[in-house]
Design brief:
mainly alpha
């Protein structure tokens, strides 16, 4: 189903995909022309954000089951809560960055940061799709190798995102690397841990 959705999106918005891959693989995210073209097409951007949420939620569900950290035994219910939790975390982050940019008169820096975050998220949603298929339908060595490679891929993309965001923010705002690291801990990692903790508390009370 996810492959069919991706194929449909690819056929409906070929130019958006072309610009997205050009921006991510061949050029830098500083290129204003391609960035403006992507920002002027909100529908495919919104759909690909939703595609990321579904794929990332499914990937997190596989990870929780693999490490036996799942707070609920029903796979699809866990998938639903992971997707909703991920959506809530990024929605709060988006609103918080917008409000912070407005309050501190740094709207351009906030917009640049948001743009990079969601561009990389879209690529994560696309690139983990083959691994989701392998994790869902394979076992043994194939499963373990797929899981390890997917970790490396996701970790590499997140590291790439952190580097790009730091460079973009540093060019517009004087920021200390240590303060930026604290920001990453507070707004990138802590929300995901809070979502997982909330799931544990919720299902602990209803059990």
């Amino acid at each position: 189903f996810l492959l069919l959705v991706f194929a449909l999106l690819r056929q409906l918005f070929p130019k958006y995909f072309s610009d997205l891959f050009r921006l991510f693989f061949r050029t830098t995210l500083k290129q204003r022309q391609i960035r403006d073209q992507l920002m002027q097409t909100p529908l495919p951007s919104l759909l690909l954000n939703g595609f990321f949420v579904v794929n990332a939620g499914l990937y997190i569900t596989f990870l929780l089951q693999h490490f036996k950290l799942n707070p609920v035994d029903n796979f699809w219910l866990l998938f639903l809560y992971c997707s909703l939790g991920l959506s809530a975390a990024y929605l709060v982050k988006f609103i918080g960055l917008k409000v912070s940019g407005w309050l501190f008169s740094m709207g351009e820096a906030a917009d640049s940061y948001i743009f990079i975050v969601f561009i990389v998220n879209k690529m994560i949603g696309i690139l983990i799709l083959p691994f989701l298929i392998l994790l869902a339908f394979s076992a043994g060595n194939v499963y373990n190798v797929s899981l390890t490679i997917s970790w490396c891929l996701v970790a590499g993309l997140f590291a790439y995102r952190f580097i790009l965001t730091y460079v973009a923010i540093r060019n517009q705002v004087k920021v200390n690397p240590f303060h930026f690291f604290l920001y990453l801990l507070a707004f990138e990692i802590a929300p995901l841990l809070l979502v997982y903790k909330g799931l544990l508390l919720f299902f602990g009370r209803t059990a």
